[in-house]
Design brief:
The chain is of the alpha/beta class. The protein has 2 domains: about 90 residues, Translation factors (Elongation Factor Tu (Ef-tu), domain 3); about 170 residues, 3-Layer(aba) Sandwich (Rossmann fold). The chain has 7 helices and 15 strands. The chain has a 7-stranded mixed β-sheet with strand order 10-9-8-7-11-12-15, sandwiched between helices. Strands 1-2-5-4-3-6 form a 6-stranded antiparallel barrel. Strands 13-14 form a two-stranded antiparallel sheet. Bound molecules: FE2/S2 (inorganic) cluster. The site of FE2/S2 (inorganic) cluster has 12 residues, from loops.
Length: about 290
């Protein structure tokens, strides 16, 4: 983890209220992995105290740049939209634990809802570079909120669902999972809580619905791995990146805790944001 001064190189609004910002941050570009995030400080004159967490949308080691993707939801994120190329902000990162791909997995299914694209987007690049096949299922309220195809690598199969049917499948992105789960060796998701819960339910019944586990996961099945361990994630069919309000993002304030099936509370900023879906107690995760 580094505390770095970074320079904004480019900012653009890619969808109404959604921004991509590219920063020169060589240490983060070379030292971060898909699924991790940065905690970014607003400027001294903003009057805002808390840093803002942003998923690392893409990273480019060759140019020493990382790009963040965010939606304006309040004064903090609004402040970032007024930055101009050449402006500096300080970033803490990389934070959190990344997605873990089983080395045997060739077919990766990525599932994103809305701004959840920010959480899985870098994994598409990593997977394509490693010679894997990627299908990305994306859900949005309507066509005006659909992440542009032009921002994805050509190799990615991109399938869209919209709530109002204005583009792609008419319905929820979760409706699409049964069409692809037999193809997929592993799935990786980021998005709103109901979407992740629905996917976790489908993943939990996958073996009984499909008959057999892929990738010979019968060997070693049942062996427990510590919650949050890379092995627990690597052997899971579904990994989820949790979106949670964060205060400190370094594990100190306990403001981002969710409950694990083990009964041990998990800090999304430290033990997550990526978990194996079966590690999360979905009924009790948000204290209900
Ligand atoms: S945000 Fe403070 S412990 Fe996670």
């Amino acid at each position: 983890m580094h505390l770095l001064g970074t320079e904004l190189l480019e900012a653009r609004e890619i969808l109404p209220g959604q921004w991509l910002q590219t920063y020169h941050a060589p240490e983060l570009a070379t030292g971060s992995r898909a699924g991790q995030f940065v905690h970014v400080r607003t400027g001294d004159l903003s009057g805002l105290v808390l840093r803002r967490p942003f998923s690392i949308h893409t990273l480019d080691a060759a140019t020493g740049t990382i790009t963040i993707h965010f939606r304006t939801v309040g004064r903090g994120t609004e402040w970032f939209t007024h930055l101009r190329p050449g402006d500096n902000v300080d970033m803490l990162g990389p934070l959190g634990r990344p997605f873990e791909v089983d080395p045997r997995s060739q077919h990766l299914l990525l599932i994103a809802g809305g701004l959840g694209m920010a959480g899985v987007r870098a994994l598409a690049d990593e997977a394509i570079r490693a010679g894997r096949q990627v299908t990305l299922l994306f859900g949005a309220a309507s066509a005006r909120d659909v992440y542009p195809t032009s921002l994805l690598p050509d190799e990615v199969e991109y399938v869209v669902a919209t709530d109002d049917g204005s583009m792609g499948h008419h319905g929820f992105v979760t409706d699409l999972l049964p069409r692809y789960e037999a193809w997929a060796d592993q799935a990786f998701a980021c998005g709103p809580e109901p979407m992740l819960q629905a996917l976790a339910r489908l993943a939990a019944t996958r073996r009984s619905r499909m008959g057999v586990a892929k990738l010979g996961r019968k060997r070693g099945a049942g062996k427990g791995h510590a919650v949050g361990s890379p092995l627990a994630r690597r052997k899971a069919f579904l990994q989820v990146s949790m979106e949670q309000r964060m205060g400190c993002a370094i594990g100190a304030c306990l403001g981002c805790v969710v409950m694990a099936t083990s009964g041990v509370p998990q800090r999304v900023c430290r033990e997550g944001p990526v978990f194996a879906s079966e590690e999360i107690d979905w009924e009790g995760a948000w204290g209900r």
